[in-house]
Design goal:
The complex is a heterodimer of chains A (369) and B (326). With 369 residues, chain A is of the alpha/beta class. Chain A folds into two domains: 12-331, Rossmann fold (3-Layer(aba) Sandwich); 336-368. In chain A, 44% of the residues lie in helices and 9% in strands. In chain A, strands 1-7-8-4-3-2 form a six-stranded parallel β-sheet, with helices on both faces. Chain A has a two-stranded antiparallel sheet with strand order 5-6. In chain A, strand 5 and strand 6 form a beta hairpin. The radius of gyration of chain A is 22 Å and the shape is globular. With 326 residues, chain B is of the alpha/beta class. Chain B has two domains: 3-183, Thiamin diphosphate (ThDP)-binding fold, Pyr/PP domains (Rossmann fold, 3-Layer(aba) Sandwich), CATH 3.40.50.970; 197-324, 3-Layer(aba) Sandwich (Rossmann fold). Chain B is 36% helix and 19% strand. Chain B contains twelve helices and 14 strands. In chain B, the strands form three sheets. Chain B has a seven-stranded mixed β-sheet with strand order 3-2-4-5-7-6-12, sandwiched between helices. The longest helix of chain B has 15 residues, at 6-20. Chain B is globular and about 60 Å long. The chains are: A alpha/beta (369), B alpha/beta (326). Chains A and B meet through helix 13 of A and helix 3 and helix 11 of B. The structure holds thiamine diphosphate (TPP) and magnesium ion (MG). Residues 166-168, 196, 198-199 of chain A line the site of magnesium ion (MG).
Chain lengths: 369, 326
C-alpha cells in the first residue's frame, strides 16, 4: 500500500515569524507595541546592556576574577524578547543564557556575577521573588515549569510559567515529559527553545534528525512555532502572544527561537576545536543589536550621539555591578549549613561548629600572614 | 618513555582497548570531534572512526540505557557522563537493569559496560560540577565502583573495567587529572579490580582514602613523618567490592585508622569501612576510627569549596586524635 491509498488522519505545519530582516527592514506587519519608539528603544537598551555585561564578565573571567562563565552574546534578542513579554508576577525558569530576561525581571547584574564567582548569594535574587535560579542540569526545569503552571491553574491565577532551554536540551526525557503534561493538562506555560545551533560541540543537525525543534510540540499536542530569534520585534511579538494565550486559558505553546551561539560554549570551552570561524563570521551579519539599530536609525531618529550616550550609560551600570561584586564581603564558611533546612538539625550542629572554628583559624591566619 | 597525566592515561587505556578489541565502543556528549570536555577522548574519533567513537544526543538516561543494550549484545561500551553532577538520570538504568541483567536472566544476558565520569571538587567549577557521590553507586548490588588516583592506576584500572564481565562505574578525580605525571607503559596490562593499593608503609596509624584526597593524605603523612609519626597509606581504588583484607591487615599492625573522603559524611563509603572495622577489626583498634570527610551540606559553590573538602590540617588533627588514646 502506498501512502496515496492510506487516509491522512492528521497534518501539521510549522510557521516561522520574522518581522525585521537582516538589513533592519520591515518584512511583516508591525505589531502594535512596536509603533512606539519608546518600547523599541527599551528593547534596544536591554540588549546593549546585556552585551556590555557579557563582554565585561568574559573579561573578568579572563583576568581571574570570575569562574567559568557562559555568555549570551548574539542571543540577546531571545532573552530580551522573553523578558519583555512577561509580567512581574509570572515565573521564569532560566538556563545560563537568559541574562537579558533576568535583568528585566529584577535580577541584579552583581547577583549574576556572584553566581559565576562561586557564591550562592548570587541566586538569592533579592528583588525578584518569583523566578527560579539558573538551571544547570539540562532540561530538569521543564517538569518543574509544568508544576508551577499547574499551581497557577489550580489557584485560578492569571499567571504564566516560562521555561527556556537549548536545542541540545530537547533531546532529554525531561523535556518530552514536561511538554507532554503541558499539553495533557492544558497548562499555562510557554516553553522557549533557544536554538543556537550548538550544544557545546554537537551541531543541531547531529543532535536530532527532526526537521525543526518546534515540531516536537506537535507530538505533545501543543502548538509549536519558529521565530527569528535575532529579530527582537518578532521575538517579543510571538512571545507576548503565547504568554497572553496561556494567561487567558488558551494553553501552552512551544517557541523555537532560531539564533546562533557567537562565542565559545563557556569560557572553559574552545570552539575552534569543532567549528570554523568563517561560519561564526557569517552569523555576525545577523546580529540582533545591529539589526534593531538600523531600524531605529531609519524610523526613530536614532543617531551616533544617542548610541554613544547609551553605551556610556551601560558601561557605567556594568562597572558599578562589577565593583559591587568585587567588594562583596566573603560569606562565612559555616553559612554552608544555614539553608539546608528551616532549622539546623541538632545532629549537624557539631559539623557547623567545626567549620566555623576552622574558618576563623584559617581566616585569622590569612590576616596575620 | 614519556611521562603522562591521569587524563592522558585514561585516553591511552581507551585507545588500547579500541585497538585491541573491535567490540569496544566509546560514546557520550562531546566525546567525538571535541575529544571530551576534559580531553579524555582526544583524537580517538580520528583514529578509530565515528562508528566506534560517537557523540550522543544530550541525554544521560539514553547514554546508560544504550550502554546496557550494547553490552547485552556483547559489545564493550565505554560511556562517558560529562560530569558526575549529571549522572543521576542514569540511576534508573543502572539500578534497574545494568546491575540486574545477569541476575535476572540467571547468567543468560550480561552487562559488561563501563560508565566513566569525572567527579569531585577543587577546580572552581560552577554548581553541580564538584560533587562526590560514589556512595550512591557503591550502594547498588551487582555494580563495581572504581576510582583511580594515579596515571598508572588510571590506565590499568580502566583497562580492567573494560575487560570486566560486569558493569563498572569508573569515577575520575578531575582535580588531579593533570596534577602528576608517571611513566605508563602501554602494555595493555590490566590491574586487579579488587585489591587496594598500599601507597606507603608505616607503623603508627592507617590512613585510608581514594581519589583526589590521596594528595592531601600523602601530604599529611609527609608532615607527620617529620614529627616522628609513621603512616600506612592505602588507596582503596576499588570502592566496591571493597578489599577489607588489606585495610584490616594494616590496622592489625597500626591499631589506628583515619578514613579520608571528599564526599559527605553520612552514609559515605567511609561509614562502610568503619562498620567493617567495628565488625572484623575491633580487637586490633587502640582508638576510635576517625573520619575526615566533606560535611553533610550541599557541596558549596567554589568560594567555599576549600572549607568543605578535607584539608591536610584536618587529616593531621584526626591522626593526632587517634594517637591521644593509649
Ligand atoms: C544533564 C546535563 N548533562 C550535561 C550537561 C553539560 N552541559 C552543559 S551545557 C551543555 C550543552 C547544552 O546545549 P543546549 O541545550 O543547546 O544549550 P546551549 O548551551 O547551547 O545554550 C552540556 C552538555 C549539563 N549541564 N546537564
Ligand atoms: Mg544550544
Amino acid at each position: 500500500m502506498t501512502n496515496e491509498d492510506k487516509k491522512c488522519v492528521a497534518q501539521f505545519e510549522i510557521h516561522y515569524t520574522q518581522l525585521l530582516n537582516q538589513q533592519g527592514e520591515l518584512v511583516g506587519a508591525l505589531p502594535e507595541f512596536a509603533a512606539s519608539a519608546e518600547a523599541l528603544i527599551a528593547l534596544y537598551r536591554t540588549m546593549v546592556q546585556t552585551r556590555t555585561f557579557d563582554t565585561q564578565a568574559i573579561a573578568l573571567q579572563r583576568t581571574g576574577k570570575l569562574g567559568t562563565y557562559s555568555s549570551s552574546i548574539g542571543q540577546e534578542a531571545v532573552s530580551v524578547g522573553i523578558g519583555s513579554a512577561m509580567r512581574f508576577e509570572d515565573v521564569l525558569l532560566p538556563t545560563y543564557r537568559e541574562y537579558g530576561a533576568q535583568f528585566q525581571r529584577g535580577v541584579e547584574m552583581s547577583e549574576i556575577l556572584r553566581y559565576w564567582g562561586g557564591d550562592e548569594r548570587g541566586m538569592a535574587y533579592h528583588a525578584q521573588p518569583h523566578d527560579k535560579a539558573i538551571t544547570v542540569p539540562i532540561a530538569t526545569h521543564v517538569p518543574q515549569c509544568a508544576g508551577i503552571a499547574y499551581a497557577m491553574k489550580l489557584r485560578k491565577q492569571p499567571r504564566v510559567a516560562v521555561c527556556v532551554l537549548g536545542d541540545g536540551a530537547t533531546s532529554k526525557g525531561d523535556f518530552y515529559e514536561g511538554i507532554n503534561v503541558a499539553g495533557a493538562w492544558h497548562l499555562p506555560m510557554v516553553i522557549v527553545v533557544t536554538n543556537n545551533q550548538w550544544a557545546i560541540s554537537v551541531p543541531r543537525e547531529v543532535q536530532t534528525h527532526a526537521q525543526t525543534l518546534a515540531q516536537k510540540a506537535i507530538a505533545a499536542g501543543i502548538p509549536g512555532e519558529q521565530v527569528d530569534g535575532n529579530d527582537v520585534i518578532a521575538m517579543r511579538h510571538v512571545m507576548a502572544n503565547a504568554v497572553e494565550k496561556a494567561r487567558t486559558g488558551g494553553g501552552p505553546t512551544l517557541i523555537e527561537a532560531i539564533t546562533f551561539r557567537m562565542h565559545d560554549h563557556t569560557t572553559a570551552d574552545d570552539a575552534s576545536r569543532y567549528r570554523k570561524q568563517a561560519v561564526v563570521d557569517q552569523h555576525k551579519l545577523l546580529d540582533p543589536i545591529d539589526r534593531l539599530r538600523k531600524y531605529l536609525i531609519q524610523h526613530h531618529d536614532w543617531d551616533d550621539a544617542k548610541e554613544t550616550a547609551l553605551l556610556e550609560a551601560c558601561t557605567i551600570e556594568v562597572e558599578a555591578a562589577v565593583r559591587s561584586y568585587l567588594d562583596t564581603p566573603p560569606a562565612p564558611p559555616e553559612s554552608m549549613f544555614d539553608y539546608l533546612y528551616e532549622t539546623l538539625p541538632d545532629a549537624l550542629q557539631p559539623q557547623r561548629d567545626e567549620v566555623e572554628s576552622l574558618g576563623k583559624l584559617k581566616r585569622g591566619g590569612d590576616h596575620n600572614g | 618513555m614519556a611521562e603522562i597525566t591521569i587524563i592522558e592515561a585514561v585516553n591511552l587505556a581507551m585507545a588500547r582497548a579500541l585497538e585491541n578489541n573491535p567490540d569496544v565502543v566509546v560514546f557520550g556528549e562531546d566525546v567525538g570531534v571535541n575529544g571530551g570536555v576534559f580531553r579524555a577522548t582526544d583524537g580517538l574519533q580520528q583514529r578509530y572512526g565515528a562508528n566506534r567513537v560517537l557523540d550522543t544526543p544530550l541525554a544521560e538516561a539514553l547514554i546508560a540505557g544504550m550502554a546496557i543494550g550494547m553490552a547485552a549484545e556483547g559489545l564493550r561500551p565505554v560511556a562517558e557522563i560529562q560530569f558526575m553532577g549529571f549522572i543521576y538520570p542514569t540511576i534508573e538504568q543502572m539500578i534497574c537493569h545494568a546491575t540486574r541483567l545477569r541476575n535476572r536472566t540467571r547468567g543468560r544476558i550480561t552487562c559488561p559496560m563501563v560508565l566513566r565520569a569525572p567527579y569531585g571538587g577543587g577546580i572552581h567549577a560552577p554548581e553541580h560540577h564538584s560533587e562526590s557521590t560514589e556512595a550512591i553507586f557503591a550502594h547498588m548490588p551487582g555494580l563495581r565502583v572504581v576510582i583511580p588516583s594515579s596515571p598508572l592506576r588510571a590506565y590499568g584500572l580502566l583497562l580492567a573495567a573494560i575487560q570486566d564481565p560486569d558493569p563498572v562505574v569508573f569515577l575520575e578525580p578531575k582535580r588531579i587529572y593533570r596534577m602528576m605525571k608517571q611513566e605508563v607503559p602501554d602494555d595493555g596490562e590490566a590491574l586487579p579490580l579488587d585489591v587496594c593499593f598500599q601507597l606507603r608503609d608505616g607503623t603508627d596509624v592507617t590512613l585510608v582514602t581514594w581519589g583526589a584526597m590521596i594528595h592531601e593524605t600523602l601530604q599529611a603523612a609527609d608532615q607527620l613523618e617529620a614529627e616522628g609519626i609513621s603512616c600506612d597509606v592505602i588507596d582503596v581504588a576499588t570502592i566496591k567490592p571493597l578489599d577489607m583484607a588489606t585495610i584490616l591487615n594494616s590496622v592489625a599492625k597500626t591499631g589506628r585508622c583515619v578514613i579520608v573522603h571528599e564526599a559527605a559524611r553520612t552514609c559515605g563509603v567511609g561509614a562502610e569501612i568503619a562498620a567493617q572495622l567495628a565488625e572484623y577489626g575491633l580487637l586490633s583498634l587502640f582508638a576510635p576510627v576517625q573520619r575526615v570527610t566533606g560535611y553533610d551540606t550541599i557541596m558549596p559553590m567554589f568560594k567555599l569549596e576549600n572549607d568543605y573538602m578535607p584539608s591536610t590540617e584536618r587529616i593531621i588533627t584526626a591522626v593526632k586524635k587517634t594517637l591521644e588514646e593509649a
